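Annex B.
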Amino acid sequence: MSFERPYEGLKVVDLSQGLAGPYCGMLMAQQGADVIKIEPQGGDWARLIGGVYGDHTAYSIVANCGKRAMAMNLKAAPSREITDKLIAEADVFIEGYRPGVAERLGYGYEALSAVNPGLIYISVSGFGQCGPMRDRPAMDPMLQAFSGFVAENTGTDGIPHHTPVSYFDMSTGLYAQQALAGALYARKDGAPGRKIEVSLLEAAASIQAVRLLSGYRTGPRRSSTAPSGTFKTRDGHIQINIVRDREFETFCTLLALDDLWATEKYRTIAGRLEDIDFLNDYVRRVTENWTAEDLSNLLSEAGLQNEVVQTYRDLVRHPQAEAVGVFSWLQQAGANDPWPVPNIPGMPAFEPGSALAQSPTVGEHTRQILEELGYGADEIDGFYADGVVA
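CoA transferase: predicted structure tokens.
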């Protein structure tokens, strides 16, 4: 055990698919746990969405780096014996089925805790384990709509928009992992195993807590600073936020906005907010005459908050990201060139070529895991021939 690998020696059986549950398991693997991903013989459905490279997509790489993969038909009779052996020696079990499905398959908490009383059981769902919406499918875009996020993300076109960023899947995985960390710490002092339930619904509410509380009181989002927003330039866009009154004075001086500064009411944030649409439109007519880089340099030298609107490709190659070590370039099976995978904040950077930096292909470690469970070569060959494993 070390600060870098505090979960070394722990075993995790991960039956979850998609992103939320698997991301929790991936974090455990990066901190030293032996995480065994059990997926259908056709693979986790996250291997099929977006650009596909062999057995991988962006989802499967982010969710599974550092795990060992086993492909198995859970409905085949021998699979229960195999999973029981795995669960008997596991510390953690992760599932992401709709409520009730794990129980029907024989992998509910009561059944597994009978096999292993000390097991920490993580159940990840969309809308929670109870209530009128418990059985509804719930990918990230659905929770964006349900949780108020889409309504808050109304563009200048007046239309609410969802975002392609999987905020709620990823945050669900983070919340699950922090709850798991607490349970494992308590278990060190003799606490028994337990079931932890985490849903995308709860994560969506929690990760939006500040805006949710504000919006509950005041209604739809209103800007708290002015001028502020995304402004078009000659060659792109720039984000500008002017907060303090003295910043507005500096802003007006830099851009020769003398008539704005001459208007007394605009010298206070309250006055500027009254006419925010006018101010933003006024500033847009000015920024259109600048390049984004030149304007950003001017504002930055004066200490005003701004950033050029970048693409992901811009970010990956930016000197600041390179200086901080935001990304590691990891080669994965199926792709001709490496992927810029974000390193996990607060943890060691991925080491290209290492086991922790590899996302397994479907069933890559099936035979290895079966051998560790004590199955002989002939028996394992029989499992393959009978379609029990792949």
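The chain has two domains: 11-211+358-385, 228-310. Residues 34 and 64 are 12 Å apart (CA to CA). Further annotation is deferred to the next reporting cycle.
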